[in-house]
Design a protein that fits this description.
By secondary structure, the protein is an alpha/beta fold. It is built from eleven helices and twelve strands. The structure holds 3-isopropylmalic acid and manganese (II) ion.
Length: 330
């Protein structure tokens, strides 16, 4: 069944395998009967090499009136590491206030299980607080702060409780309160106070190092997990690794207030070594497209795409063959 609505989507294929996997995502969305009004943006490492452009403010402002942003991957070996990541990806997350990074995981096999990590996406160690003193001397000092606001922690935590209410009513906070006695304390107090508003949700707490063991040995204990930006970055790579690989890991960078677009991207990077060879698995990008549809209110199409991806998750084939197979499964 086609939808009558059309959505304005900014598409950033980006670098490496990004454009290939996004093409499959758009193909599958179309096959699901959803009409997107797409605008392509040539941004990423390759564009930077061409003319020095990373993410101009006028582009960012243009995006504010879009319904969503669909991004493949950015980064190329020709550009110093971090430049595009900070100038494009993190700038998007911060400037568009995409404060929830939602990363769902699904374990197939004998004990199928799915769980989701909410990573705070605008603060913590990513805020860029810090600096050098006496740089380049033997007495050099580097500090890198972690910025934690009560508002920032609380809104991510609140999203966690809301999501838990719609799922299995269980939420785990992951932090390192035994060592990070300031930020951990703020997060723990915010968590415990918001928990009082959701008496139906059972809660748990794990230190991040222990959570790494449980992700591998006992992921069944998790349904919804909420954590800070850096712990969430690391933990979600592990989540991908223990649930079918990074080729299946999708993500949504959400502005839950909806006063601007949210951004949807696979967790994987640009994989320049296999770019342009139709070797990349497009499932993570296709699933990210499904998350985009779900957030736009097209939950039926999102569910059909997700089910089709599940059916094709073990398939071996070229990037476009996998996209075709998912489309055929709808
Ligand atoms: C991710 C990535 C980014 C991050 C990098 C590319 C800056 O690893 O989306 O998880 O650290 O957030
Ligand atoms: Mn990461």
């Amino acid at each position: 069944m086609g939808s009558a609505k059309s959505y304005r989507i900014a598409v950033v294929g980006g670098d490496g395998i990004g454009p290939e996997v996004i093409a499959e995502g758009l193909k599958v969305i179309k096959a699901a009967g959803i009409t997107l009004d797409t605008s392509d943006y040539d941004l990423g490492g390759a564009r930077y090499v061409k003319d020095g452009t990373v993410l101009p403010d006028d582009v960012l402002d243009e995006w504010r009136s879009f319904d969503a942003i669909y991004l493949g991957a950015v980064g190329t070996p020709a550009v110093p590491p971090g430049l595009i990541e900070r100038g494009l990806l993190l700038k998007m997350r911060f400037e568009l206030d995409l404060y929830v990074n939602l990363r769902p995981f699904k374990k197939a096999g004998e004990h199928p299980h799915d769980f989701v990590v909410i990573r705070e996406n605008t603060e913590g160690a990513y805020a860029g607080e810090g600096g050098f003193l006496r740089k380049g001397t033997p007495h050099e000092i580097a500090t890198q702060g972690s910025v934690n606001t009560r508002m920032g922690a609380e809104r991510a935590i609140r999203f966690g409780f809301e999501l838990a209410m719609r799922r299995n009513k269980h939420l785990t906070l992951v932090h390192k309160t035994n060592v990070l006695t300031f930020s951990g304390d703020l997060w723990e107090r915010a968590f415990n106070e918001v928990a009082l508003e959701y008496p139906e949700v059972t809660t748990a707490y794990n230190h991040v190092d222990a959570a790494c063991i449980y992700f591998v040995q006992d992921p069944q204990r998790y349904d919804v997990v909420v954590t800070d930006n850096l712990f969430g970055d690391i933990l979600t790579d592990l989540g991908g690794a223990v649930s079918g690989g990074i080729g299946l890991a999708a993500s949504a960078n959400l502005n839950p207030t909806r006063n601007g677009p949210s951004m949807f991207e696979p967790v994987h990077g640009s994989a320049p070594d296999i770019a342009g060879q139709q070797k990349a698995n497009p499932i993570a990008a296709i699933l990210s497209g499904a998350m985009m549809l779900d957030f736009l209110g097209e939950s039926a199409a999102a569910e059909r795409i997700t089910a089709a991806c599940d059916a094709c998750s073990e398939m071996i084939g070229s990037t476009s063959e996998i996209g075709d197979a998912v489309s055929a499964h709808l």
